[in-house]
Design brief:
The structure holds two protein chains of two kinds.
Chain A: E1 2-10, E2 13-17, E3 27-30, E4 35-43, E5 46-51, E6 63-66, E7 72-75, E8 83-84, H1 91-98, E9 117-121, E10 128-129, E11 134-141, E12 144-149, E13 156-161, E14 165-167, E15 174-178, E16 181-185, E17 189-192, E18 201-203, H2 214-219, E19 227-231, H3 238-248, E20 253-259, H4 263-272, E21 289-294, H5 300-319, E22 323-329, H6 331-344, H7 358-367, E23 370-373, E24 379-388, H8 398-406, E25 409-410, H9 415-419, E26 432-433, H10 436-444, H11 450-474, H12 481-498, H13 512-535, H14 539-543, H15 548-551, H16 554-557, H17 564-586
Parallel strand pairs in A: 8-21, 19-24, 20-21, 20-22, 22-24
Antiparallel strand pairs in A: 1-2, 1-6, 2-5, 3-4, 3-6, 4-5, 7-17, 9-11, 9-14, 10-13, 11-12, 13-15, 15-16, 18-23, 23-24, 25-26
Chain B: E1 5-7, E2 10-14, E3 17-21, E4 31-35, E5 41-50, E6 53-58, E7 71-74, E8 80-82, E9 90-93, E10 110-112, E11 123-124, E12 129-130, H1 135-140, E13 143-144, E14 151-153, H2 159-173, E15 179-186, H3 190-202, E16 209-214, H4 226-240, E17 244-250, H5 252-265, H6 279-287, E18 292-293, E19 299-307, H7 316-324, E20 327-330, H8 333-337, E21 350-351, H9 354-357, H10 367-391, H11 398-415, H12 425-436, H13 449-455
Helix pairs in contact in B: 2-3, 6-7, 10-11, 10-12, 11-12
Classes of the chains: A alpha+beta, B alpha/beta.
The complex binds adenosine-5'-triphosphate and magnesium ion.
Adenosine-5'-triphosphate sits between chains A (232, 234-240, 261, 389, 423-424, 501-503) and B (323, 352, 355).
Chain lengths: 587, 467
Amino acid sequence: MVTGKVISVNGPIVKASGLARIKMFDIAEVGPHRLIGEVIRLAGGVTVIQVYEDNTGLKPGDEVVSSCRPLSVLLGPGLIANIYDGIQRPLVGISEVCGSYIEKGIKLPALDMEKRWAFSPLVTAGAALRGGCVLGEIRESPLVVHRVLLPPGVSGTLTGIAAAGEYTIDEEIYTLDTATGTYTGKLAGYWPVRSPRPFRLKKKPFIPLMTGQRVIDTFFPIARGGTAAIPGGFGTGKTMTQHALAKWCNADIIVYIGCGERGNEMTDVLTEFPNLIDERNGRPLIERTVMIANTSNMPVPAREVSIYTGVTIAEFYRDMGYSVAVMADSTSRWAEALRELSSRLGDMPAEEGFPPYLATRLAEFYERAGLVETLSGHDGDITIIGAVSPPGGDFSEPVTQHTSRFVRCFWALDKILADARHYPSISWTDSYTEYLHDIEAWWRTLDSQWLSLRNEVMNILLDDHRLQQLVKLVGTDALPQTQQFVLFAAEMIKNAFLQQNSFDPIDKYCSPEKQLKLLKTFLTLYRKGSQLVHAGVSLKEIKALDVMSELVRLKSEVPNQDTARIDEYGKRLATELDSLKELLTGV
Amino acid sequence: MAVEIEYTCLSEISGPLIFVRGVRGVGFGEIVEIRDGSSAVRTGQTLEVDEDSAVVQVFEGTSGLSVEGMRVTFVGRPLEIPVDRDMLGRVFDGLGRPIDGAPQVITDNLKDINGLPVNPWSREYPRDFIQTGISAIDGMNTLIRGQKLPIFSASGMPHNLIAAQIARQAMILSAKEEFTVIFAAMGVKFDMARFFIDSLEESGVLTHSAIFLSLADAPSIERLITPRVALTLAEHLAFDEGMHVLVILTDMTNYCESLRELSSSRGEIPSRKGYPGYLYSDLASIYERAGRLKGHRGSITQMPILTMPSDDISHPVPDLTGYITEGQIVLERELFNKGIYPPIAGLPSLSRLMKDGIGEGHTRKDHAEVAAQLFASYAKVKRIRALEAIVGEEELSSLDRVYLKFGTAFEEEFLSQGPEENRSIEQTLDLGWRMLSLLPQEELYRICAEDLHKFYIPSKERGECQR
Ligand SMILES: Nc1ncnc2c1ncn2[C@@H]1O[C@H](COP(=O)(O)OP(=O)(O)OP(=O)(O)O)[C@@H](O)[C@H]1O
Ligand SMILES: [Mg+2]
């Protein structure tokens, strides 16, 4: 324990003197309320601390104490279904102590210290163990088997382990003979937030993260272990997309980080997730979700840490062999926190006031995603999906630009689509994914032609995009029937496939099978239809077919379990289209 | 705790800031009183403190202050105001001091004007529909109790008339519950404030309202305090007294300009258009003070009004506001010039809390679909109008022309209404169907077959022949 004194206060940046031996990123407790802060700079005898709580009233001369330990999160059973602030203080506990508002200086353990967890050991005394190996199991939630791991960096011979039974996270569970002496372990332990947890090796992602959102899964898929950015101006649908993914994507664990965004959006997750049932296992979605909420009105420095807190928790579950998806909404608010702190430190700014190290920090963050072989030899992965909020919706700004260098999937939200209430407003012309070929093999198990089907439909949309430039100049009627037909088919694909309402009881989630069948239906329309128009059938006749009006409503009328109805519809569509051909040849 | 320490040594005055030397034991964010020899006392707050000096922002501005002969007192606590139910029916200045001639409200209930951040866990998700009687809002951008929904306006447009209409009509309907209006004016002209006060008076609710005025002639730095003072009272009324409070904050652009002024006098590195990098967080500390809390009856609904400099929605003030609030009501110059009141833009306006406050049990089952279809069809109208401007009407397809007819009707009948006209939600939705029925059924793909069957009005019944 070292102590020192405050010498100056400038917003959340506090300078102190007298803290000998303190290191970068150590925690320091500041002033009479013992506000939590972190050392972010050491210069001569002066320690610069960023304080994670409101420090109104803090005075020069106030005491600063530190036990010289880095800012860490507590990892153990009980994280699931919990909600924390940016520095892992439990929000439920805080509300029990101080009501509706977060008072400063409050300190509570991140995990329940009293709860007894049913632990079953999986190793026996005498075993030679290395860091990261599985020691035993706990059922953390009906959906999550929590694997108790030997912390990375510890190795030796197991000299004792608790018998199957119920233990708190504060009890000693096992002892190990190590090169440096006896090591005693518990069910929970600390890990410094700014240090990525180690793994054996990184692998190339190959399984798609199925999200149930057609424009993503079919056109711009992301792999488990991949990275994606969702840039878009205000109100274009970043948060809704993140919520939809957190609800329906097929990861085992979701870490949802509300970073500098609205309080009500976290409340929305908190009220909805316990009541939403996951179709795949019949359990409430909350049972696989961990939430970090450092909303826009909570202290800015804690916003900067919140994404590290979130991703460290994600790594913890990855190391147990799970597939984890991290939603960070919004990384721009994190970057702004970085900017604010660096400007208070008097750093020379680079672009738009952001510090020169913005790009490095972004790269480091996204680098914590990936499919890995864990220290225990299993596969585990982290997918990171970050929202980006560019000022004025202009993608040329630094955060969007740098982020696009470090992610491999870019879901660009389009203001014009959002204005027309075409959601998700993910642009099919400006978005891209680099995972298409990595995950193709997976889709081939459903249909060997998947990629070429997908590309064929994509090409209709791109043709349409080109034709729209013409339409803007001459109007639709001036185009030949064949081109008008392309516009019609594309319009159908936009309304009946790309557009997907998150509030629709059926369409909010679309299974891969249903996506594929819908895709094929559009191809039936397109292939047969273009032949017909080429042969002289008018577009009007095609539009007038009885089956046409049903097409737009298939997505919201056919449930995922009943996709045979789409096959049946496809047959009728084919027959009706063919009947037009017969008319033609009949004449 | 409240040790009062007095100093006389100013080293510098710069813009709204004074620099005091030789101070000891002064806290960050504390209140400071400054006396200049006359009887007047100015209030300020420390922005930065170190071992022997402090930087203080003076809310009343520094004009008339000199480096010599000042007495500066550090009060040892943050800025607090008294809050009490008796403040309803009263008029205060921008720092919360009465200016209506009546004495200061007597209470020992003092609250820090910065409030505390609400624990997200303790929020109650807002779901109760507020009927404003304005079709463009109720039908397509529904206001929810506890929402923060700003009006993005621009010079010369009738945002005040709209805000007053909302305040008046929303109140009539909530006769059963206690409803109050808190009106905070930042840097606006007196006649504008007068208009509001009169309008509240006419509808007989002035006695249930509190008014905070930091008018255009008040020191600009005072505006940084005004919304916080107003919201501190709002929190008391909503969460201690159980009232439904509508807070109107006008004009947030003036507020932001004051913040820019303060920031530049501190020599901070500016972000876009000279505004400080922390403008987002600062605005959030105001806007996030709206909402509902678990276990409390009341609510705070915020309606900030801001003017978009040169009608530019990507200007930092509307832009950052839109990133924090739960939607926005955007006023459009083009509609205004066509003489349409209220000129609420069809596409960029949005209410994000609408989804949970409409539909069966709240408004009507078809509400979400009608709104979505109106948006989608009107978006198409905009595309066709752009095309028409290039190719001329003759080149448009017959369907395109039907859309244009729909567009005109939508603007002139649905959007447009009188400043005194109060439409029920049923009237609004029925009107919506009348508009949609101008389009062929096949075009209404956002509507389920069942509702289409139930509500669509075929052209024969509309009593006109549709070509
Ligand atoms: N998939 C969707 N289905 C239905 N509605 C949607 C969808 N996506 C977005 N919306 C609508 O758009 C609104 C705004 O979306 P959202 O809150 O996700 O925007 P955002 O990009 O996160 O904005 P901000 O940057 O201000 O947080 C929502 O309230 C909802 O009405
Ligand atoms: Mg959002």
